[in-house]
Queue: 2 jobs
Job 1
Amino acid sequence: MLFYLSHLTAELSYYPIFVMLMSKNVTIRNIICHPMGEMMMNPKEQLNKVIDNIEKVIIGKRDIAELSIVAMLSHGHVLLEDVPGVGKTMLVRALAKSVGADFKRIQFTPDLLPSDVIGVSIYNPKDMEFNFRPGPIMGNIVLADEINRTSPKTQSSLLEAMEEASVTIDGVTMQIPKPFFVMATQNPIEYEGTYPLPEAQLDRFLLKIKMGYPSMKEEMEVLSRSQLSMPIEDLQSVISLEELLELQRQAKNVNVDDTIRSYIVELARQTRNDSYVYLGVSPRGSIALMKSAQAYALLKGRDFVTPDDVQHLAKFVFGHRIMLRSEARYDGISAEEITDRILTKTKVPVQRLVGQ
Amino acid sequence: MKSIRKNKAFMAILYVLVFLLLAEWLTPVITLTDTGHKNLFLLFIGISLIMAFLQIHWSISAGVKVFFILWFLIHVYTDSAVFSFEALGYILFDLQINIEALFAQDWAQTTDIFRTVLFFSLLWMAVYLIHYWVGFRLSIFLFYILTVVFIAVLDTFSPYNGDTAIIRIMVVGLMLAGLLHLARWLEGHRINETLDRLAGFIIPLFIMVAASTALALYLPKAGPIWPDPVPYLTSFSGEGGPGPAAVGRIGYGVDDSELGGSFIGDDTPAFRAEVEDGQYWKVETKDIYTTKGWELSEPVADPVLYSNGDIIETEFIPGSEEESLTAVLEMEQDFPFVLYPYGVESIQTNGEIRYSYSANDQKIEPLLSGAPYEPDNVEIQFNEPSYSLTGLRETTVDKLAELPPEFDRYKQLPEELPQRVRDLAAEITQNSETVYDKAQAIENYFERNGFEYSLTNIPVPAEDQDYVDQFLFETKRGYCDNFSTSMVVLLRSLDIPARWVKGFNEGVQIDAETGSDSDIYQVTNNNAHSWVEAYMPGVGWMLFEPTIGFTGASQIDFDLDVETPDSEEQELPERPERPEIEEQDEAAAAAAVDNGPNFWDRTGDFISANKGLLFLAAAAFLLLALALFLKRQKWMPKILVPYYRRKNGKQTFEKAYLRLLKQLDLYGIKRQDGQTLMSYARYIDSFFGTREMTRLTASYEQSVYGGQPETVDWHELKESWENLINRTSS
């Protein structure tokens, strides 16, 4: 503590950050461990360092890493959908390690109860009162593995915690420490004994990402790297949680011009009018697209959103928010294809809106 | 970079040419306005141009000009040759008067000095503008076109003859335009050339202009295909009349065989009459109506000659007032006849003058030893005729039949006269018992039946049309000729003898002669008039005034009806007028052309006559426009590059960028609807092997999506933009 104070007096510029972090319930340890020099870097460099770090572990999935960071920067959560063994868990762990975040993992099984996720109050006979034992959800980065395997009740408890960023037990509301980022995985292959997430709840995820297999070259690289030791063990954090929080704030300040807003809204409206679509993207989906585009712009080192950002993210934001009619399934049309089609036919705004 | 503008020799040539062009403006103005000292004005222009050329500081230049103007004013308007206090004081005093006049909007009060100053200011401004066009814009085309139009208009519509001026202007203008184009070209491509090298361009230009001018002068000139537009234009503007040489004006004329057409007023003084009351001044009468106008029949008797002071016997018996009245006419125009009032008794002029009175046309012509004489002053004794009301009441219709055959010529009517005119006369007079009542009914008919007095837009009757018929049934508007002729014809169709009288009405009273009963009346050409005399059986000839707004009508008393040609002052809004065409041949010709179909009809005729040609021209024009439109990708950059190069400002870059997008689209690289600018830019760059489109696009995105147009530096991006847009035209 004394050391911290002396440090504080030496570097006056710490002060506002300190206050800011104190108010967010962050431990002092983090500040001492991460000198200010790194905070002076621009967002693009910082985020690229994170991505590079992740790439050390996950080969050839730079875009997935980017999307994860985008979701994290815009206070969102990610649903990873893919077969087991493509590195979903590894990605999340690498991300958590890179930002020095508290990593928790919940393996969802059919018998998992809500209290196993959010925590439980246990009577302490010594103190004659109930003590709260936090569940695995109370972490910075949470991997919710195979979320579709558990009962809807448990799923709901997770999704509610994700939405509120807090848990309520016995009438007591507990804030989940920030940053809070949930990456849920879902296995699309095994349907036996699964409880697919309802569409309305899918909306809680900012992005839905598919990992996909690595290419041959990439997979060979994976093998060679894993020969001696798992690279994940050697991974060091490259930015601090505080820096991450600051980046989150910066993402909010990325400029979204009216032209871009109108473009986003137009895209969302198009999904509602498509003949294959049973239920289009909600306004929450439009917000999600805007927020993720802001984060993506920040990642690309810009302080304003371009239509390219929107186009890049639309597939991941809209994919799980579009409910298709059965005709689409017969015609073999996926929600991603619908999104692509809408992107192709919607005019990109290239001029300042009239009256601007 | 050394600009062509810095090349003194080159610019000197330009300024000399500009001087010549300005001189062409000055010459017609000076000629037409009868302004003197043309050389001094030219000197002013010359000095101004030299100072502009030498780029003398504006304060010095303005000082020199003001000094020159002052010197001019003193030199021209005062006798003192040098600057003196008196002269300056005079100028200042004059200025003061003029400023007061200006504020009072009393334009007539402004003096010549002031107008000269204004003219100098105008020249000053013109020189400044030209200097700007030539020295900065390197462009003269607009001024050149204006000069040509100016000279062409003056040549067409004014006495100024621009035959040689237009050739000089063409030569000078072509030279100027060629040199300025060269200058712009050099600037546009940032080429520096010495005058020696430039001579390689300039000399061929001189030769080409000289050769084309010489060829043009040598070639035969075709006559005009279209008729002279001036009479046509004037008729269209409602100011009908003969051609440019003689504008149709009101006045006293001789020929009345073709009546009709519009007239403009003319207040040229004719004479002044000093007389107790305003009179109708009679000149002559005419008796043959030709359906188009009036002619005079062959005289049946020789004219009677009278000397000064002799009692002249006219068909009007002087009144029985105790004392005769005296009228003194001071002639301001030369008339070979005497203007006499009703009831004339005797005439007195200076010299051995005899007066020939012809009963045929009632004209009194003064003769000096047998030759027509134009008196300057005429003194006339007269006594206004009076008519007995009882006599007038006895003018029964059956007395008309008993009239001797001498009156037959006053009953003449053309056979072509439409029946409806006769029917109208019968209808008007059906309730009138006596001849006098009938005449009165006709006299008053016009006022009560929607007729209108007007000098303008009065047609000439067509070939098969009757002048009176046209007025009575179609136009219902006209001036004294229409009314008086119509009344005569209507009277004659009832077998009442009537004739058409020409002369002047009373004019305007300008001054009351103090100490006597006489007033002075100014009679101008506007007062030329025509009216009616009708014969009342048993009473004699009487004056009738059918024209609306004129008060020459008889006043009837209880038992004694005094026919007073005019006894009242009148200030009518429209002065009595007797329009006359002075140059009848031209007038007739012009009238026939002018008052025929109107502008739109003629346009329609022209179109229908040249349908094929017009269609071809329109088709060619459309094809040309279409070709230009389709090829716009080729020529647009040539316009866009200089346009945007000069432009600055926040919006410029965005506009230029969007323009570039359009050009690229025309070039064939289409951007899909869903394609973002950046991906399009990458494609463009990969297509052209450049990186500029990406650069521009990044800036554009920053400007539009980032909402930070101020961060974009158009100057830095200009080159990239020009590079790309030029690629699209290749």
Note: Residues 238-249, 560-595 of chain B have pLDDT under 50 and may be disordered.
Job 2
Amino acid sequence: MNKHMQFRMGFLYLALAALCAFPVAAQDAPDVGPHPPQPMKPMESHIGKVTGHAKDAKMNYRRYCAGCHGDQGDGNGENAVWLDPKPRDFTMATFKCRSTVTGTLPTDEDLFDTIGRGLTNSNMPIWNTFSDQQRADFVAYIKTFSPRWEKEKAGDPIKIPAEPPVTIESISHGKALFTKLECWKCHGPQGKGDGPSAATLTDSKDQPIRPYNFAGGGDDSRLKCGSTNSEVYKIFITGVDGTPMPSFADVIQPNDAWDLVHFLRTLQVTRHSKENDVLKAAGGKIPAYVEKQSEAPASQSENKAAGGGN
Amino acid sequence: MRMGTQSRFGGKLPCVQFLATAALGVVFLILSSSQAANALPAFARKYGLRCSACHESWPMLNYFGQKFKDNGYQLMNDRDAPIWQNASYWPITLRITPFWSRESVNKVAVDNTATGEAKMTTTGFNLGGLDILTGGTLEKNITFLLVPSSDENGAFHFESANVRFDNLFHSPWLNVKMGKFELDSFISEKRSLTLSASGGGYQLFHFIPVGDGNIFGQVGDNQLGAEWMGHSYNDRTRLSAAVFSSTDGSPDVPYGQNSYTAFFAGSQAFGAGKLGVQRIGGYAMFGVAPTTYLTSDGVPIPGSGIGNKSFSRIGFEGLFYLGPKLDVQVFTQHGSDNAWFGACYGDIISGTCDPANNNTNGATLPTGTRNPTWNGAFVETHYVWNPQFTIFQRSEWVRMSQQAIPGTPSNLGDIDNYVFGYRYNPFMTSRAGFAFHNEYSWIRQRGTSPVTGTDLSTNSVMLGFDFDF
């Protein structure tokens, strides 16, 4: 490059720098738009050996999350009006997918897992492209939106006993429980989410909410809070906070919950599962549950309402 | 010097014609930087995500956007199938860039000067080409991309047109598409942040040695063929293999009767703590293209090409995050063409080479002709001040390591290209994209000025409004 060219390039660089400064100077800061409250709380999260720091997630939250959850974390991002179900309002610190008992705060791992898993039947994608550190930072950032995180500790994770073998008896008992516990009123007799109460349900923000359609997932085994049987079990015990789905921790015994899990899997009629294999081997029909003497009877009318759940 | 060399056909390759051809090639490369970029607000509207969720700064994809693309423009939730969309949903995006620019070329062929060359500088308002981007799901796991694209004068072609079957047998490792598509590279020229005439395109994606007659050899142009692509569930690992006609994306098979090229790519991403998720990978392209044509009244017949000769391109690519605000893309290439291409056999259909250069019986190469080879690299850096404001630069170098014709200056055709600028998005929503784009670029190619065969350089200053809806 000769001197003339060097001079010209230098001039152009300066000119460009001035042009660069224009849009920057035109704003109070180039970072336009609403912002989270300042100063940010020095919140941390702890997932295994990883410590997340809220301040490190600020930009990524704005890039990936704020469009739905809002800059203030209140679930009022610019896309929220178009979404069903509505984005989570982090200021309420109420979370659906937890390992802790109903009404308590989730663990950091619960939030960490939810980010990486996404929430099926919603617009929440599977954010497994982040590093563990980035996800941990998100968890810490989410916790800055509610004062509950400063005042309360996360609940203790529930204990999940080992899963008993899948048998036609356990499926049959699960079906009886499905009737007895009136799951069908929301989820429908065939688990299609079309029970008689389905149309009336609202969440804790009075937004309409649909019960889960077990039969609609095709081969996709994902449920809201996970895809394994343990994660389905967990939902019975913890409930889905912020929704009409209650916790059954005080109502059913662990083995009963497992039986219910086994039955619910048979409602996913197109999914390949050990439960459907057992059902197929039994001729494709769930036999009527024969109560043991120590158990309370499930009424005939409820059994009828549950119908042929498979 | 290459020019003035006596050809084996007894004719003399005129110096001016040779260099003019080379200069035109450079100009073509420069103009070809008007690229159809893929940034679809229609996707954002469909899923309710901000542009920034998928784009580092649109149209450049981030890791999440790459995964979305690898899943066939699906988030892999129950909102993918079109049945979820409002009946009025219409997955179309229009993108065009009005701009003002200053273009300067240090040497153009002119009359009435001592050297026959003079500098020329032009300023004015201009318009980029129009991209009509439409893509999405035909049904869950059956996706399409159709991109009619025009130049600034309204001449249309199909930049992309393909259908893809995704997640066959419920495996993310089985995705197959056919049609016209971009070769699988996570460093995408189609999604480059640079737009100016002298710096919009990646030189390595289009580099052909001066005087080379290879029809093909481009990793940057969309190709007509079929591709298998597979990836892990979280897209950390990506592999792909494609086979396509050696036509450089031209329809109607205008060159060889049976000329194909294969392209392989693979990459692996890994977390690096607070630095973010890094990705490294490589690619290899091997192909053949014709050098012999049937003729009619001396005119080569399109589609009659035989006498395939080989070429290859291999390289490394990496995308490194140095924290949430700074990332660096690195791309390298080692390229090699068969000696016949190096002697300008091959493309006598579109006029790159003299029609007399038909590799018929008895044709021989000039003594000592060998495979032209070269090496190149570029480093592109993005400083994302915030998701709305990105400063970028790219430095690119291409160096010939072996000229085809002995005696040719070793640096003939070498390229240096420097670009820097910024993109500023005044707003950021899931409905539309708009960027105030300002860029400066400078490029020099050794020995390719049109008359004297000295260095040819151009520079561009560009201020534009880049928008899509």
Note: The mean pLDDT of chain A is 83.
